[in-house]
Amino acid sequence: MRTCLDVMSDFIDKRTDIYVNRLKELVAIPSISEDPSHRLDVLKALRWCGIRLKNQGFEVCYRKVGKEIMYEGDQLPLKPTGIVPLTPVICATFGHDPTKPTLLIYGHVDVKPVSPQEYWKVDPFDLTVLDGFMYGRGVADDKGPILGWMNAIDGFIQCKQEIPVNIRFLIEGGGETGSEGLRELLHEMRNDFLKDVDYVAISDNYWLNMNTPCLTYGLRGVIYFHVFVDGSERDLHSGSHGGAVQEPLADLQALMNSLVDFNGDIKVPRILDGVREPEVGELKRFETLDFDASTYSSQINTKALHS
Questions:
Q1: Helix (H) or strand (E) holding 60
Q2: What is the pLDDT of residue 18?
Q3: Which of 24, 101, 172, 277 could form a disulfide with 198 if both were Cys (CB 3.0 to 4.6 A apart)?
Q4: What's residue 83's pLDDT?
């Protein structure tokens, strides 16, 4: 007896060319969020996704996330030129069945700059298929994964199969520039758009290898600090005063060296308090992962890995 997934798989296989052409359309939009001259392209990419979701039956709205100061010039300090709105966030809803769990899918349509251009063997904004691989800016991060979800939903709808979850999409245009304003928007939406969300899927990551799909449920975090170390209030000659004066650079080096040891272990007191230890079942699953350290090292062009 054919299952729902069997029917959908056949349907999707027959529409592969359609789905690749859709990705080609989206990749062709140079939505580079770091470059103010491409702001309209970011908006265009968001609108493209919004139209696609609306055609699938989603309720689609665009939420504002505040404003940002624009700067110009290539010398510090940069000159502020004005204040403009940040690109909006797509909030899309499909299904309100209280008996089903609700899945929130996150993604971003903006991409990194393509410079230096000479490193590209193809036009980064013209999707190209070579030896079974697709090349183009945003194919993996993050336009391809977003469309993967849309295509799966398309399969459910076209095959008249019931989707087992309510779906929410949250798609932004600032994922490559720090997601400015998103944190505040999430807090603002906690009692409406996000109220009934049970699970979150961040479609913005990679496989462990080139062959085996995987679900990622944990990533390293990041936090930024600004550190200022002061010394003498005047410039001192190193030949006359070197060795006698406590130098801020040496203090800064000592500070940085106290954070992480040579093996990559964090040495900040109590920073790991509250971090959940891996369960026995997880450790056993890690042992069976389809992961090869030498292949991974080769893919990222490094020879130095922590054990």
A1: strand 59-63
A2: 96
A3: 101
A4: 78
Closest among 106, 297, 139, 281 to 208, alpha carbons compared: 297
Amino acid (one-letter) located at 159: C
Determine which of 5-14, 16-25, 130-139, 219-228 has the lowest per-residue pLDDT on average: 219-228
Half-sphere exposure of 275 (CA within 13 A, CB side): 10
Strand ranges (DSSP E) for 126-256? 128-130, 133-135, 166-172, 199-202
Residue 168 makes CB contacts below 8 A (sequence gap 6+) with 91, 92, 93, 94, 102, 103, 104, 105, 193, 194, 197
Interatomic CA distance for residues 65 and 172, integer angstroms: 10
Confidence of residue 218 (pLDDT cuts 50, 70, 90): confident
Domain parsing of the chain, residue ranges: 4-70+78-202, 240-299
Residue 168 in contact with residue 203, Cβ under 8 Å? Answer: no
Residues 6 or more apart in contact with residue 194 via CB below 8 angstroms: 104, 168, 186
DSSP assignment of 130-151, as one string? ETTEEESTTTTTTHHHHHHHHH
Which tokens hold the place of 41? 């392209």
Q: Is the dihedral of CA 65, 69, 71, 76 positive or negative?
A: negative
pLDDT of residue 78: 66
For residue 23, give the 3-state DSSP assignment: helix
